[in-house]
Design brief:
Belongs to the LDH/MDH superfamily. MDH type 2 family. The chain is α/β, with parallel strands linked by helices. The chain is about 45% helix and about 20% strand. The structure holds nicotinamide-adenine-dinucleotide (NAD) and (2S)-2-hydroxybutanedioic acid. Nicotinamide-adenine-dinucleotide binds next to helix 1.
């Protein structure tokens, strides 16, 4: 019997990331080469026509796994029966906007989307928030979906993880395939902490293989943490294909599991591990087992790492407090 299609809802479908993402989902890269998908696209009314253009192109690819494409400007309809939700559409920071204004503007998007997921998504729904500020947008959506287990709401730090892998591989002149157990801690922002002290290169400790604390502190960490801004500076627009690629990696691993000898980075509600306050959506070293993320336990955190994890988590706590004051969580 043919497999029942998985329903994937993508918000901001007419945007840059949407354009890089939808064709990969429809070709089977999000869930697996044998899993048919039903796409439900959400856009604001002004962008529905552009989303229709993308849907025409999806038709023109004749993807064997693509069951259907439907476009909505109503969140309740878009999330009806959804198994995987990719929340990409967000309000960008405009000139003169303070961080609080940005959080408030995004609250207007992620609160109703959380409510719509709560009301109509499938029982097994998994939600990945890509739209910035991703961790706190995920917290807002999650807090308005009380009937969905909190750990089904993730924020994306896989792009940061992939960026860190490449910087380290280049420094050591090794292949990406040789690197294991790298971690992004904290927020998807410039305070994030890319940690190579537990990472391995060909089985040896990566930080020792680098052997240069100054490179770690003054080049590696800032290059990874500020890569998003560097891409904007170079391209005149924020990363799109690499962000879409990271969303594919994140969901594929969440659904299909991570390799036995490795871990990745994903942001989801803290259970209090590593001193991260419970409920804060922070990035952790994580493995996916049986369709759920588990935090990698028992890592020794030295003073250098502790200070950086704490700084990023403090920023998340402040964002949480701001949206709390605004009545958004
Ligand atoms: P974009 O401006 O090209 O597209 C955003 C789309 O979202 C637009 O088409 C817009 O109409 C739509 N949109 C706005 N409000 C919406 C709503 N309420 N419902 C549905 N759609 C809505 O932006 P982009 O380059 O595709 O980036 C999208 C977001 O992803 C941004 O917030 C960006 O900062 C973020 N981003 C995150 C990461 C990450 O690693 N987490 C990486 C890159 C970009
Ligand atoms: C990125 O990391 O590339 C983006 O989050 C940058 C941005 O502000 O959109």
């Amino acid at each position: 019997m043919a497999q029942v299609p998985v329903t994937v809802t993508v918000t901001g479908a007419a945007g840059q990331i949407g354009y890089a993402l939808l064709f990969r989902i429809a070709s089977g890269q999000l869930l697996g080469a044998d899993v048919p998908v039903r796409l439900r696209l959400l856009e604001i009314p002004q962008a529905v026509k552009a989303a229709e253009g993308t849907a025409m192109e999806l038709d023109d690819c004749a993807f064997p796994l693509l069951d259907s494409v439907d476009i909505f400007d109503d969140a309740n309809q878009a999330f009806e029966g959804c198994n995987v939700a990719l929340l990409v559409g967000a309000r960008p920071r405009a000139k003169g906007m303070e961080r609080g204004d940005l959080l408030e503007a995004n609250g207007g998007i992620f609160k109703p989307q959380g409510e719509a997921i709560n009301a109509g998504a499938a029982a097994d729904v998994r939600v990945l928030v890509v739209g910035n500020p991703a961790n706190t947008n995920a917290l807002i959506a999650q807090s308005h979906a009380p009937d969905v287990p909190a750990d089904r709401f993730n924020a994306m730090t896989r792009l940061d993880h992939n960026r860190a892998l490449t910087q380290l591989a280049k420094k050591l002149g090794v292949s990406i395939n040789d690197i294991r157990k790298l971690t992004i801690w904290g927020n998807h922002s410039a305070t994030q902490y890319p940690d190579i002290f537990h990472a391995e290169v060909g089985g040896a400790n990566a930080a020792k293989a680098v052997g240069d604390q100054s490179w770690i502190e003054n080049e590696f960490i800032p290059t990874v943490a500020k890569r998003g801004a560097a891409i904007i500076e170079a391209r005149g627009a924020s990363s799109a294909a690499s962000a879409a690629n990271a969303a594919i990696d994140h969901v594929y691993d969440w659904v299909n599991g991570t390799p036995e000898d490795d871990w990745t980075s994903a942001a989801f509600p803290s259970d209090g591990s590593y001193g991260v306050p419970e409920g804060i959506i922070s990035s952790f070293p994580a493995v996916s087992r049986n369709g759920r993320w588990e935090i990698v336990r028992g890592l020794d955190i030295d003073a250098f790492s502790r200070e950086r994890i704490d700084a990023s988590v403090q920023e998340l706590v402040e964002e949480r407090d701001t949206v709390k004051q605004l009545g958004l969580v």
